[in-house]
Write a structure and sequence with these properties.
Elements lengths: L2 H10 L6 H16 L10 H8 L3 H17 L1 H11 L1 H19 L5 H30 L4 H8 L1 H34 L1 H8 L6 H4 L6 H19 L3 H19 L2 H6 L1 H17 L1 H12 L4 H26 L8 H21 L3 H29 L5 H30 L3 H33 L37
Helix pairs in contact: 2-7, 2-8, 2-9, 2-10, 4-7, 4-20, 5-6, 5-7, 6-7, 6-9, 6-10, 7-8, 9-17, 12-13, 15-20, 15-21, 16-17, 16-21, 17-19, 18-19, 18-21, 20-21
Length: about 500
């Protein structure tokens, strides 16, 4: 064996075995610490209202900012990972999350809480979570799908444990001391990051010819830098900067795909609209139960029930949707899950008894599992994989905007009417309308494409949606994962 081949064999050996499983364990903990954390914010809702004399709308901004930054900081995390690596990004995120929660324990106003717990902790959670997901792509090749599925169970574990721990600490120590303890707990993200040591890939040991697209992009960037440095004309420099900016936007925010691909446009708009109502039960369910006489510990248990059921249902949903029967039909499964999620809210409106609320949480959790398991599978079906990371950047940013404004607007409505039922009416409206919009639009688009293309549709390629407008390009059998793929979980 040649020296280069031996080096490649040695570099590839750590993947899918040995230390890779420790990295997977760290990724499970990371997802529980980061994505699961916002599930406990509803436990502090009434205490924060009383402490700062804040309205429902003002208090809900705290959790909305945290969730929005966690989802929308993907492009920034991608740049950070590309420049400094996954381990640095995870550990920086853990430090930011800890600093944010420790600072929150000393806040004197609700607006200060927006900055500390909302922005700083949300951004730190974004860095830790998304860099932790990215590093799995380096450590796993053969078992990559299994690794990501196992890592996602951390979200459900977080949903189960965070509310129970929060209610216990709140009863024993108050919200300020609880936030201080949370700062120490979130610092464990740095420990998880330390486990994720950089991996020397075979592709880095053996020189490879660059991809044509990347080679052209690098040449264009080099030419622009050269022109900008040597040209004495300000107009040429300004044009070069505009071109570089355009390339950056196209790389991280796929506006060209949004304009050209109708399937991606429909799906992105539908999910963004759906998110206006998706997060409302997580924020207001505990306050709603407490207002209607449910004991505080039982009210916190409701969110934990949702997370516990997700642990078992989400992997099953992912396996079911991967069956060949559902190939090309996953968007309809996703729409059905959103529709069921919206209809389940009427159970909560009918009665606030604890037994009824448990029934509501069970049905809501089943529907949420479908949404969480299918969100990115559908996106991968609609968009070519070589543009997936770019399409996901725009997708998560639009999603984060509606996640940000949904709960505060609903909180304003509750302040005006003094009726928590409007929380669930609003949630049902956005979820049901989004489900019908996506389902009907994709059905019409598929029929239109069938009538227009007819025999042009390749029948021997069942892995592609017929409504996808992006041309299929041959993909290499083995290629290194992207520097960063910013992925969120619902």
């Amino acid at each position: 064996m040649s020296q280069g081949g031996a080096a490649a064999h040695k570099a590839a050996k750590p993947q899918d075995q040995g230390w890779a499983w420790m990295v997977l364990f760290a990724a499970v903990l990371l997802q529980g610490l980061t994505l699961g954390f916002p599930s406990c914010t509803g436990v502090f809702f009434k205490d924060l209202q009383h402490e700062f004399q804040a309205s429902n709308s003002e208090t809900s901004w705290f959790s909305s900012i945290m969730v929005a930054v966690l989802h929308g900081g993907g492009p920034l995390c991608s740049i950070l990972v590309k420049r400094f690596g996954c381990r640095f990004a995870v550990m920086l995120g853990g430090l930011l999350s800890s600093v944010g929660m420790v600072s929150s324990s000393f806040c004197k106003s609700i607006s200060q809480l927006y900055l500390t717990a909302g922005l700083i902790t949300g951004l730190g959670s974004c860095f830790s979570f998304q860099a932790g997901v990215t590093v799995l792509g380096y450590y796993f090749v053969r078992w990559r799908t299994l690794a990501n599925a196992m890592a996602s169970t951390g979200v459900s574990l977080g949903f189960t444990l965070w509310p129970l721990l929060s209610q216990y600490l709140l009863d024993e120590m108050g919200w300020r001391n609880t936030f201080l303890i949370f700062g120490g707990i979130l610092l464990n993200c740095c420990v998880c990051g330390a486990i994720m040591r950089p991996l020397q890939l075979a592709s880095e040991s053996v020189p490879e010819s660059p991809e044509p697209g990347r080679e052209a992009e690098s040449s264009a960037e080099a030419a622009q830098l050269s022109n900008g440095a040597s040209s004495p004309h300000p107009e040429l420099q300004q044009q070069s900067r505009r071109t570089a900016c355009s390339q950056m936007l196209q790389k991280y925010l796929a506006f060209d795909i949004f304009c050209q691909n109708k399937g991606y446009r429909i799906y992105t708009i539908g999910v963004a609209w759906m998110m206006m109502g998706f997060a409302l039960p997580h924020v207001y369910l505990v306050p709603y139960a407490i207002q209607n006489g449910v004991e505080e510990r039982k009210a916190a248990l409701l969110i934990s029930i949702i997370g516990l059921i997700n642990i078992f249902i989400r992997p099953f949903t992912g396996l079911l949707s991967g069956h060949r029967v559902f190939t090309g039909r996953r968007i309809y499964l996703f729409s059905l899950a959103a529709l069921l999620c919206g209809l389940s809210n009427f159970i909560c409106v009918s009665s606030a008894e604890f037994s009824v609320l448990i029934t509501y949480c069970i049905i809501l959790s089943i529907a949420m599992s479908g949404i969480g398991a299918l969100t990115f599978q559908v996106l991968m079906d609609v968009v070519e994989m070589d543009r997936f990371s770019s399409a996901l950047g725009l997708f998560t940013i639009l999603e984060s905007i509606t996640l940000l404004i949904g709960p505060p607007l609903t909180g304003l409505l509750v302040d005006i009417t003094s009726d928590f039922h409007y929380v669930f009416y609003n949630s049902s409206f956005f979820l049901i309308s989004a489900a019908l919009f996506m389902g009907i639009s994709f059905c019409m688009l598929e029929k239109k494409n069938k009538s227009n293309e007819g025999s042009k549709v390749p029948l021997d390629n069942p892995s592609r949606y017929q409504y996808s407008e992006m041309p299929t390009q041959p993909q290499p059998e083995s290629q290194p994962p992207p520097a960063a793929v910013y992925i969120t979980s619902i």
